[in-house]
Amino acid sequence: MSKQKFTLEYPVRCSPTILYEFLATSNGLGEWFAETVDERDGKFYFGWNGSVEEAEVLEKEEESFIRFRWVGAPKDEYFEFRIDKSEITNQTILVITDFAEKKDIKDQSQLWDYQVKDLFHRLGN
User: Fold this and answer.
1) The sheet that has 36-40: what strands, in order across it?
2) What Pfam families does the annotation carry (predicted)?
């Protein structure tokens, strides 16, 4: 069964420059995404509860987006953090794209909500 792509959007009260640091650096990601984060040779190593997951950076653009793929995941599956601006309100929007089985999208979305809440706390939102 193939996974489905889903997207979540979160309005953020901070500059794209600051937000990008939290999305694309090991120090920033270590503040909210995982217990430990190391970066070596274009790969990120995310640690939770003693286990480590490895992800490679597929693409990135400073202050715009970063796309990761878990090592071992299908080539067309990734997770991405994108920074958009609302044309109407000029507010910064964090757009997260991920993949999950259809039955797991709700749970995966709730996990992202929890993670982003931690990110917002770190950002002072």
Assistant:
1) 4-12, 92-100, 79-85, 65-70, 51-61, 43-48, 36-40
2) START_2
Angle at 78 between CA 73 and CA 80, to 5 degrees: 155
pTM: 0.93
What does the chain come to in residues? Answer: 125
State how far the Cα of 42 lies from the Cα of 65, in Å rounded to an integer. Answer: 15
pLDDT confidence band for 125 (50 / 70 / 90): confident
pLDDT digits (tens, 9 = 90+) for 97-113: 999 999 999 999 999 99
User: Which pLDDT does position 1 carry in this prediction?
Assistant: 59
Q: What is the domain-level CATH number for residue 119?
A: 3.30.530.20
- Contacts for 65 with CB less than 8 Å, ≥ 6 apart: 59, 80, 81, 82, 83
Q: What is the DSSP secondary structure assignment for residue 82, as one 8-state letter?
A: E
Total domains in the fold of the chain = 1
Look up the domain containing 33 and give its range: 4-123
